C-alpha cells in the first residue's frame, strides 16, 4: 500500500520535530509537560505542516493513552459520543487522548459536548487549528486548555528535513541524488514553512526524475516546477491574508519601502491584487494624508492603471504607489480629527446649529429673523471670526496640525490671519 513520504518520515520522537524549539526544545514548557506524562488539555495553533499532528501522536505514545483522531470538518457529535462510550472500558483503560483537528469547524454545541469529559480528565483534548483560537474557539474550551503556538518553519529547519527526505529516497530507490546547486534550498524556501509540502516535492522529484545510470539529477528547474506557489499563504478566510494586509500598511506607515515591496509582492503572487489595491488606497488617505494630499489622486491613478492592465504589468504602478507612500511624509491628522468628531456625535453632543449657518430658506414667513451670517469672501484674507460649531461644542478642537512641512505652513498662515 502506498504511503506518502511525508507520512513515512513523520517524526516519532520530540528530538526529530523540526522548527519548534521555542516549545519543544530542551527545557521548554511543552517539552517538560510531555516528559512529565501529565498532559493538560491543549490547543495547538499554527500553519499547516508545522508538526501539530505529529506532536499529538508522540504525546499519545509517551503517555500510553489511547489516541482518537477526529477532523472537525467531517466529524459530528455522534462521533464524540462513540468515543465517550468507550471510556472506563478495556478499550481505554488510561483514559482517551482526543486529537481534534480544525476545531474551529465545530459549532458551539459540538464544542460544549466535550466539556464534561475534559473537566473530569477522562478525555484529554488536543485541539488544533490554523486560525487564531481566541477568535474561533469558544471560551469554555479555551478556559480549560493551554494554547501553544506552532511557528512557521524557517528555511534552515526546512532544509534539514528536505535533506533527510532525499537520503531516504536514495535508499528507497537505490539511486544517488545529484542536486543542482540551489535546488534543495529552493524547495526548503518555497515550501512556506510547510514541511509536508517540502517532502511531497522531494518525492515528486524522485518519481518524475529520469535516472542516469545509478544517479538521479535533481535540477533547479524541476524544483521550481514542483513547488510553484506553495510558499504563499493568503487564503481570504484565514489569518494570514489579513496579516499580509496589516504588514503592508504598517510597513508603509513605518516608512520602510523594502518591507512594503516585500508584502506587496506576497499579495500579488498569491493572486490578491484587488485586496492590495484597496489597501493601498486606504493607506494614501489614512497614513500619508494631509502631509502630501496629492498622494490620494496619484495612488488612485496607479490603482486604476493596475486594474486596467492586470498582472503581470499591474505590479509596475502598484510598486510605484507603495514606494512613493513609504517614502512620503506622514500625517493622520485628518482622519483623527474626524474620528474625534464622530465620537462626540455618537455621544449625542452637538445639538442644532448656530443661527448664522442655517439655510435662510428654512425661515417661515411668520418667524422670519435676521440670520446674521458673515460672508468670509467680503473680508480681508477671506476670513472673519464667527461661530461655526454648535453651542454645546463651541471652542472644541478636533484638528491639530501635523508636524510635517505642509501642515505647519498652513498653521503659520492661519495663525497669522486669525491673530493666534
Structural account:
By secondary structure, the protein is of the alpha/beta class. The protein has helices at 5-8, 21-24, 29-36, 52-63, 77-84, 108-112, 115-119, 133-136, 139-142, 155-173, 183-190, 195-208, 220-227, 239-253, 257-269, 273-288, 295-309, 315-326, 333-346, 405-418; strands at residues 42-45, 66-71, 96-101, 123-129, 146-149, 176-179, 215-218. A 5-stranded parallel β-sheet has the order 2-3-4-1-5, with helices on both faces. Strands 6-7 form a two-stranded parallel sheet. Helix 5 links the parallel strand 2 (66-71) and strand 3. The relative contact order is 0.07.
Would you summarize the structure shown here?
The protein has about 425 residues and is of the alpha/beta class. The chain contains 20 helices and 7 strands.
Oligomer: single chain
- β-strand number: 7
Report the average pLDDT across residues.
Answer: 85
- The N- to C-terminal Cα distance equals 85 Å
Structural class: alpha/beta
Outline type: flat
Number of helices: 20
Query: What order do the helices and strands follow?
Result: HHHEHEHEHHEHHEHEHHEHHHHHHHH
Q: Beta-strand level of the residues, as a percent range?
A: 5-15%
Low-confidence stretches: none
Radius of gyration: 31 Å
**Helix content class:** 40-55%
Spatial arrangement of strands, main beta sheet: 2-3-4-1-5
The biggest beta sheet reads: 5 strands, parallel
Amino acid at each position: 500500500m502506498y504511503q506518502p513520504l511525508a507520512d513515512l518520515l513523520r517524526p516519532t520522537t520530540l528530538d526529530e520535530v523540526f522548527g519548534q524549539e521555542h516549545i519543544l526544545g530542551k527545557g521548554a514548557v511543552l517539552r517538560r509537560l510531555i516528559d512529565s506524562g501529565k498532559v493538560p488539555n491543549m490547543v495547538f495553533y499554527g500553519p499547516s505542516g508545522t508538526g501539530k499532528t505529529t506532536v499529538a501522536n508522540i504525546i499519545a505514545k509517551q503517555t500510553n493513552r489511547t489516541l482518537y483522531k477526529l477532523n472537525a470538518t467531517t466529524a459530528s457529535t455522534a462521533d464524540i459520543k462513540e468515543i465517550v462510550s468507550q471510556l472506563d472500558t478495556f478499550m481505554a483503560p488510561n483514559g482517551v487522548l482526543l486529537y481534534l483537528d480544525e476545531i474551529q469547524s465545530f459549532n458551539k454545541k459540538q464544542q460544549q459536548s466535550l466539556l464534561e469529559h475534559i473537566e473530569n480528565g477522562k478525555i484529554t483534548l488536543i485541539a488544533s487549528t490554523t486560525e487564531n483560537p481566541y477568535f474561533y474557539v469558544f471560551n469554555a474550551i479555551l478556559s480549560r486548555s493551554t494554547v501553544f503556538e506552532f511557528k512557521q518553519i524557517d528555511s534552515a529547519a526546512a532544509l534539514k528535513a528536505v535533506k533527510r527526505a532525499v537520503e531516504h529516497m536514495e535508499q528507497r530507490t537505490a539511486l544517488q541524488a545529484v542536486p543542482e546547486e540551489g535546488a534543495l534550498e529552493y524547495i526548503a524556501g518555497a515550501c512556506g514553512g510547510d514541511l509536508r509540502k517540502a517532502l511531497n516535492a522531494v518525492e515528486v522529484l524522485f518519481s518524475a526524475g529520469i535516472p542516469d545510470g545509478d544517479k538521479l539529477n535533481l535540477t533547479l528547474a524541476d524544483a521550481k516546477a514542483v513547488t510553484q506557489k506553495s510558499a504563499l499563504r493568503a487564503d481570504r478566510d484565514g489569518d494570514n491574508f489579513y496579516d499580509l494586509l496589516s504588514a503592508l500598511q504598517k510597513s508603509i506607515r513605518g516608512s520602510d519601502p523594502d518591507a512594503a515591496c516585500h508584502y506587496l509582492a506576497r499579495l500579488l503572487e498569491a493572486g490578491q491584487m484587488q485586496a492590495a489595491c484597496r489597501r493601498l488606497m486606504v493607506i494614501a488617505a489614512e497614513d500619508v494624508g494631509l502631509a502630501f494630499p496629492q498622494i490620494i489622486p496619484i495612488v488612485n491613478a496607479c490603482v486604476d492603471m493596475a486594474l486596467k492592465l492586470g498582472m503581470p504589468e499591474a505590479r509596475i504602478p502598484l510598486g510605484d504607489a507603495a514606494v512613493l507612500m513609504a517614502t512620503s511624509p506622514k500625517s493622520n491628522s485628518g482622519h483623527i480629527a474626524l474620528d474625534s468628531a464622530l465620537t462626540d456625535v455618537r455621544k449625542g453632543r452637538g445639538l442644532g446649529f448656530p443661527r448664522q449657518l442655517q439655510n435662510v430658506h428654512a425661515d417661515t414667513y411668520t418667524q422670519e429673523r435676521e440670520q446674521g451670517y458673515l460672508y468670509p469672501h467680503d473680508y480681508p484674507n477671506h476670513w472673519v471670526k464667527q461661530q461655526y460649531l454648535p453651542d454645546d461644542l463651541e471652542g472644541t478642537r478636533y484638528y491639530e496640525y501635523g508636524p510635517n512641512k505642509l501642515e505647519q505652513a498652513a498653521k503659520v498662515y492661519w495663525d497669522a490671519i486669525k491673530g493666534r
